[in-house]
């Protein structure tokens, strides 16, 4: 653009060079000739300038008129009979979605009476269809929804609330807006705006000398400035194309460009653009543009739901969004609003009784903006990374995409609380950091993510970027690999818990030890896992072969290179918490890998679907073998290294999990799951220094604290095909009676159960069952 | 019925109640509201140097015989036992509504829409075999047989001892495998269905 401008300038200087040559004629004609030439030159310059301005106006107006940031939404809360939600988190959820306590009749309000709620939804256009406006009635008791019914609106057994907006992906200039169309805004808005700012908008050609005079008159009459002299077109041009400096040249440009704009486009087009462009406030670095977003920002309501006095306030704020900021200067804002209401009445837009009523209303501004930016920095960071696989950054910043994530605000809240409340109680808390990942066990949806001890701080995202040795978290995969060979390993196979030395080819020695430095001789495999003994894990791992364990890890989702040194059997493999969550997903779902997702769908601004990220399952292990590992991981919680979880959790909540600790307590891990949730907690130091913590004393308290805040189902896996439970006496390696000493009900892959039987007195009998069976054959 | 393996000194009533709660083969998942039960012991502050493994030797698990079950014993010893059950969850009404919606969309040839509804149903009822079989059907309609086979397998893993669910799952699997050209796998699945 500026090239054209410069070319114009150089043309003028070259014509000036020519002019001295022609100074030979008489003085008078020379003067006129000069004047003529100067005038012609001026016209050429002006024409050139107009061409330039015209190009500026049309290119900006024709092309992408607005860069609209992408909107990121939390998952919508589904309400139905039996839905799992506590009254407290329902209220939090409603507030996040911009609901206000009220009569429950007006859209966007709810009424609560103990556990009884009446909620008036606003409706929402989801990618798979419209959720209509409804008035709902329901009761929350025992953390469950009951007596769900639709009081008004289309009947439905299940209804989605509008999803909370949890972030945006902004253009570099940080302008935020919600685009509105002229036909969808309340008529009072454009009419009121014209009454105050530009009464002859539909009659003038871009500038209106008469309006300026009228404005001056009105201002004198009102004893203050109520009207500006610029037309709406001029204001738009000023905001759209020009800098804020107040010079005559700029005023001239403004007028010229306004005329040009009017020549090219019709009035409605200009008005609609104005409604979306006008600057109406600031939230941190994010600027609030247009009436659509301003309505949400100041009232938490959609523009079409605003009352006349609310529209009047927004119209009044055009004059000075910060001076008339209703949150900071409510008195100023009120008197400005009332002036606008008077203007509306004078223009015949409001009848007298209505005017008085509207003027008497309080401002009705929400206490804080319903959407606080960057509330969940770690989560949004992961969303960004997932989006970057399929989208260009510039499209995300400007195309107004709608991104529907899987974030569950209740679980996120519980996770943040768990980290920030638990960490300070640990020893040397100052140097500790933490990460927590929570997913929905059967869908792989990432529900919550905490990337550090200050969850609001957008810094190093440990949940995604801290790659740490996984320690004993690897053991379930070692034993799974073994249990997939039922002819060699069962849960009661005795494994040696004795020290040994490995000598490598280069002469180096490796002597693994148990955490407690003890040796127990022989232990059944299930106990070796639930107590997390190191020596049996290494022995079993070496016996079945490191390549087989590596293959299991790869099948379950490890994509990074895995060491083939025996120390990998004690977890020298480094993973980020989110990778561990992916790995454990397969264990939790009985051998079905479920890719972790943060995004369900992306649509464009018109709700056309761009991408769907569907649920996927992929069977990667024998469900029967996984079931046996789940048994030992449940035992971990009941009798093993994870049992301190029940200091804070109710007994009924059956769980499965695994602790992990690396050398000198550098990493404390806990990974585990209930029926509904899978969570991975990590605690350690950023400098990788030693701590006095273990998985059980460092990470498990964070994990348990999160779990204790969420109502959920216990873990109780469905017994898969090819598994049978038997009462066995592990010491005797024999089947036994249910009531006998040492009897334990243990799952076996069919055919791998012991052949021998023992009675309660320890008398081993071979094939007792067969003998009985023989009797009846 | 009750899977109690290593209860030590626990009263029968408690054992029954907890085991009944915690496992209960054939029942649905056990829902535990927040603070849904008293913690078994008074909460302790997190300890800083708890060894990951028991430093003290575990006492041999002592199991009492049924005839010797004490009527009352120390309540501070909780009884917990690995839980399992023999069938998946029944479908809640809301999920049934969504599945009907998916059926309608399938009839209109909108398999993507059907999958969308079924994924909503799956989030509500993630442990019901039916939802996964329906997803498999929608993927068959959408001509994605690979995904269809995986969802059928997932459904089968939740069918438990419900033989009619098992049968529909194996027959569905047989159809899908045959359509994928896996004749051996198809007849294997058919054999499984026939054996029920």
Describe this structure in words.
The complex is a heterodimer of chains A (777) and B (196). Helix content of chain A is 38%, strand content 20%. Chain A has 24 helices and 36 strands. In chain A, strands 11-1-15-25-26 form a 5-stranded mixed β-sheet. In chain A, strands 3-4-5-8-9 form a 5-stranded mixed β-sheet, with helices on one face. Chain A has a 5-stranded antiparallel β-sheet with strand order 17-16-30-29-28, with helices on both faces. In chain A, helix 6 packs across helix 7 (248-264), helix 6 packs across helix 8 and helix 17 packs across helix 19. Chain A is elongated. With 196 residues, chain B is mostly helical. Helices cover 50% and strands 1% of the residues of chain B. Chain B has 7 helices and 1 strand; from the N terminus they run H-E-H-H-H-H-H-H. In chain B, helix 2 packs parallel to helix 4. Classes of the chains: A alpha+beta (777), B mainly alpha (196). Chains A and B meet through strand 27, helix 22, helix 23, strand 31 and strand 34 of A and helix 1, strand 1, helix 2, helix 3 and helix 5 of B. Strand 31 of chain A pairs antiparallel with strand 1 of chain B, so a sheet runs across the interface. Chain B: Keywords: Signal. Chain B: Residues 1-22 form the signal peptide. Chain B: Pfam families: TPR_19.
Provide the fold topology.
The complex is a heterodimer of chains A (777) and B (196).
Chain A: H1 2-18, H2 27-62, E1 70-73, E2 78-80, H3 87-96, E3 100-101, E4 109-113, E5 116-120, E6 124-126, E7 129-131, E8 135-141, E9 144-152, E10 158-160, E11 165-169, E12 175-177, H4 188-197, H5 209-222, H6 232-241, H7 248-264, H8 267-277, E13 279-283, E14 286-289, H9 290-299, H10 308-317, H11 330-346, H12 352-360, H13 377-388, H14 393-398, E15 402-405, H15 409-422, E16 432-440, E17 446-450, H16 462-465, E18 468-469, H17 475-483, E19 494-497, E20 502-503, E21 509-510, E22 521-524, H18 525-530, H19 534-544, H20 546-555, E23 574-575, H21 577-588, E24 592-593, E25 599-603, E26 609-612, E27 618-619, H22 623-638, E28 656-661, E29 667-673, E30 677-685, H23 695-708, E31 712-713, E32 723-729, E33 734-735, E34 743-749, E35 756-758, E36 764-766, H24 768-776
Parallel strand pairs in A: 1-15, 3-4, 12-14
Antiparallel strand pairs in A: 1-11, 2-10, 4-5, 5-8, 6-7, 8-9, 13-14, 15-25, 16-17, 16-30, 18-23, 19-22, 20-21, 24-27, 25-26, 28-29, 29-30, 32-33, 32-34, 35-36
Helix pairs in contact in A: 1-2, 2-7, 4-10, 4-11, 6-7, 6-8, 10-11, 11-12, 15-23, 17-19, 17-20, 17-22
Chain B: H1 12-22, E1 31-32, H2 93-107, H3 111-124, H4 129-141, H5 145-159, H6 163-179, H7 183-195
Helix pairs in contact in B: 2-3, 2-4, 3-4, 4-5, 4-6, 5-6, 6-7
């Amino acid at each position: 653009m500026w090239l054209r401008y410069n070319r114009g300038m150089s043309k003028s200087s070259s014509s000036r060079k020519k002019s001295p040559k022609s100074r030979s004629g008489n003085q008078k004609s020379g003067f006129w000739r000069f004047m003529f030439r100067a005038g012609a030159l001026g016209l050429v310059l002006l024409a050139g300038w107009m061409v330039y301005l015209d190009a500026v106006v049309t290119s900006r107006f024709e092309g992408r008129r607005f860069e609209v940031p992408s909107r990121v939404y939390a998952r919508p809360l589904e309400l139905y009979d039996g839905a799992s939600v506590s009254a407290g988190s329902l209220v939090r959820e409603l507030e996040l979605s911009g609901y206000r306590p009220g009569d429950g009749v007006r859209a966007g309000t709810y009424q609560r009476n103990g556990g009884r709620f009446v909620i008036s939804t606003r409706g929402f256009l989801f990618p798979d269809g419209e959720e209509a406006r409804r008035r709902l009635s329901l009761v929350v008791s025992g953390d469950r929804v009951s007596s769900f019914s639709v009081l008004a609106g289309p009947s439905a057994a299940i209804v989605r609330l509008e999803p909370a907006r949890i972030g945006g992906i902004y253009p570099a200039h940080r302008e935020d807006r919600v685009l509105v169309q002229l036909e969808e805004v309340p008529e009072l808005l454009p009419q009121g705006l014209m009454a105050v700012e530009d009464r002859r908008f539909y009659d003038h050609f871009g500038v209106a000398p008469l309006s300026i005079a009228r404005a001056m008159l009105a201002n004198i009459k009102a004893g203050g400035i109520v009207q500006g002299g610029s037309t709406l077109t001029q204001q738009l041009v000023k905001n759209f194309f020009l800098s804020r400096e107040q010079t005559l040249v700029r005023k001239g440009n403004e007028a010229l460009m306004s005329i040009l704009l009017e020549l090219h486009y019709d009035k409605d087009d200009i008005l609609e653009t104005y409604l979306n462009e006008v600057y109406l406030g600031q939230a941190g670095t994010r600027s609030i543009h247009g009436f659509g977003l301003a309505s949400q920002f100041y009232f938490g309501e959609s523009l079409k739901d605003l009352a006349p006095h609310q529209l009047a306030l927004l119209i009044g704020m055009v004059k000075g969004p910060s001076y008339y900021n209703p949150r900071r200067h409510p008195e100023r804002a009120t008197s400005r609003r009332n002036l606008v209401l008077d203007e509306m009445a004078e223009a015949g837009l409001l009848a007298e009784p209505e005017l008085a009523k509207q003027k008497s209303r309080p401002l009705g501004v929400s206490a804080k903006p319903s959407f606080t930016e960057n509330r969940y920095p770690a989560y949004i960071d992961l969303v960004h990374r997932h989006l970057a696989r399929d989208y260009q950054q510039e499209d995300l910043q400007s195309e107004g995409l709608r991104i529907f994530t899987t974030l569950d605000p209740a679980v996120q809240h519980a996770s943040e609380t768990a980290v920030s409340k638990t960490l300070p109680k640990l020893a040397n808390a100052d140097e500790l950091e933490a990460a927590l990942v929570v997913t929905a066990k059967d869908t792989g949806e990432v529900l919550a993510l905490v990337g550090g001890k200050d969850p609001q701080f957008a810094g190093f995202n440990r949940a995604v970027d801290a790659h740490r040795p996984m320690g004993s978290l690897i053991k379930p995969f070692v034993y799974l690999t073994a249990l997939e060979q039922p002819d060699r390993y069962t849960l009661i196979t005795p494994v040696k818990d004795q020290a040994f030395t490995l000598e490598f080819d280069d002469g180096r020695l490796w002597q693994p030890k148990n955490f407690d430095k003890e040796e127990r001789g022989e232990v059944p495999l299930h106990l070796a896992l639930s107590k997390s003994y190191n020596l049996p894990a290494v022995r079993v791992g070496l016996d079945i072969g490191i390549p087989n364990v590596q293959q299991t890890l790869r099948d379950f989702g490890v994509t990074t290179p895995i060491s083939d040194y025996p120390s990998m059997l004690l977890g020298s493999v480094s993973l980020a918490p989110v990778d561990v969550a992916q790995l454990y997903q397969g264990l939790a779902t009985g051998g079905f890998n479920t890719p972790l997702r943060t995004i369900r769908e992306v649509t464009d601004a018109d709700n056309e679907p761009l991408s769907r990220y569907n649920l996927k399952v992929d069977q990667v292990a024998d469900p029967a073998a996984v079931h046996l590992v789940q048994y030992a991981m449940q035992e971990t919680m009941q009798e093993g290294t994870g049992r301190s979880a029940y200091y804070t959790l109710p007994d009924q909540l059956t769980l499965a999990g695994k602790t992990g600790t690396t050398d000198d307590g550098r990493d404390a891990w806990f990974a585990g799951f209930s029926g509904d949730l899978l969570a991975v907690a990590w605690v350690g130091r950023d400098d990788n220094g030693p701590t006095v913590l273990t998985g059980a004393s460092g990470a498990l308290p964070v994990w348990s604290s999160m779990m204790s805040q969420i109502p959920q189902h216990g873990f109780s896996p469905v017994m898969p095909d090819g598994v049978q439970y038997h009462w066995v006496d592990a010491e005797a390696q024999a089947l036994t009676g249910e009531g006998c000493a040492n009897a334990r009900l243990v799952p076996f892959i069919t055919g791998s159960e012991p052949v021998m039987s023992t009675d309660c007195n320890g008398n081993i009998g071979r094939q007792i069952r067969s003998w009985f069976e023989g009797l009846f054959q | 019925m009750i899977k109690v393996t290593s209860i030590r000194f626990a009263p029968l009533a408690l054992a029954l109640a907890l085991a009944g709660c915690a496992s209960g083969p054939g029942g649905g998942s056990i829902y535990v509201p927040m603070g849904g039960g008293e913690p078994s012991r008074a909460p302790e502050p997190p300890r800083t140097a708890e060894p990951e493994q028991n430093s003290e030797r575990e006492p041999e698990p002592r199991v009492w015989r049924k005839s010797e079950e004490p009527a009352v014993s120390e309540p501070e010893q909780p009884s917990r036992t690995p839980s399992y059950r023999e069938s998946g969850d029944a479908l809640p009404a809301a999920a049934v509504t969504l599945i009907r919606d998916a059926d309608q969309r399938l009839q209109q040839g909108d398999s993507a829409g059907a999958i969308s509804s079924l994924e909503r149903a799956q989030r509500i009822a993630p442990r019901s075999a039916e939802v996964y079989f329906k997803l498999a059907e929608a993927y068959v309609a959408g001509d994605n047989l690979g995904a269809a086979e995986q969802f059928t397998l997932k459904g089968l893993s939740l069918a438990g001892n419900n033989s009619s669910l098992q049968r529909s799952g194996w027959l569905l699997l047989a159809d899908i495998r045959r359509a994928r050209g896996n004749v051996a796998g198809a007849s294997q699945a058919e054999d499984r269905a026939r054996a029920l």
